[in-house]
Amino acid sequence: MTKADIVNLVFERVGLPKNEAQDIVEKVFDTIKQTLIAGESIKISGFGTFNVRKKSARVGRNPKTKEEVEITPRRVVTFKASDQLKEVIENT
Q1: Of 29, 36, 59, 80, whose CB has the highest number of CB atoms within 10 Å?
Q2: Dihedrals phi, psi of 75, to nearest 5 degrees
Q3: Are residues 52 and 89 in the same domain?
């Protein structure tokens, strides 16, 4: 599913004009993005939690050449599904 698909679903189910539906979806995603950039968690009840995790530097290996390469420290986004979401997915 793409962002355009989500806009279409909001348009169809809520009945807002398409440009308003697009603005709302854009603002929701922008808010999520800005919150994650700030290093904060996002908990959506019944859906799950997005967290920003810091990964430290480590040594990896190039699978082709077997050469060791240093992987730089970075921040990654993780998602943990809620028990409710897991149950719905399991039972469908």
Answers
A1: 36
A2: -110, 140
A3: yes
